[in-house]
Write a structure and sequence with these properties.
1 helix, mainly beta, about 290 residues, eight-stranded mixed β-sheet, 20 strands, about 35% strand
Length: about 290
Amino acid sequence: MTVHTSWRRRAALSTAALACCATALAGLPAGASAAPSPAPAAADPTFTDDFNGPAGSAVDGGKWQIETGDNVNNHERQYYTSGNNNAALDGQGNLVITARKENPGNYQCWYGRCEYTSARLNTSGKFTQTYGHVEARMKVPRGQGMWPAFWMLGADIGSVGWPNSGEIDVMENVGFEPGTVHGTLHGPGYSGSGGIGAGYTLPGGKAFADDFHTFAVDWSPNKVTWSVDGTVYQTRTPADLNGNKWVFDKPFFLILNLAVGGYWPGDPDGSTSFPQQLVVDYVHVTTNN
């Protein structure tokens, strides 16, 4: 189970504290809905990053900022590094976030000397949006203790804090569930292990690490709908919140990260090989039609 993130060291963020990702929830059967993706047929792009550039180069600083530090509240094991040390373009149109079992900078974490490095990026102060179609095509890592995520936080987090800011988890995967991803809402009265969401499981025992998949939400007033590869698997509205406040009608920013260990995924063990990579083909955001 997870709780919100609290950093002791952060070089890149100006906001006071950011939340981390959702909670383990029971997965729905594969193909929970046969409905097609509700992506707008005609919509205007508002954020596009196809991660084109020379191999080894850092992400576009006009679109992303890179967070640094450790995470005590989730009991994650990694230290998020700056620059292109753990987040770099591969020269083939992908962003690669790499988790390594190393500590070249003698980084210190909540538990002592950090055992792993990785990366976390966000668009705070650079891009926010209220409503639309938010989509990323990615191939997740593999192994016990891996925790990749694509998610969003309310841009007012610096003033109202988490979970009042709201959090929309577009996709989370934990290594002990190789064939399942989760989509979750967090807000006041439904945060951490009480988040509102569901899981989607691939058919035939397939693993998400085997190939690229497209993860998306369609977000409109009083409604968020999740899909994987165009298959809708859940829709949430204020009626799902048991009388708690809906906090998703305001600007949010984007986050990509690869955590190592923590309350929800558990720590890596002898079966986990390193390095592990979250490979991101693109991130696209459009308006609703």
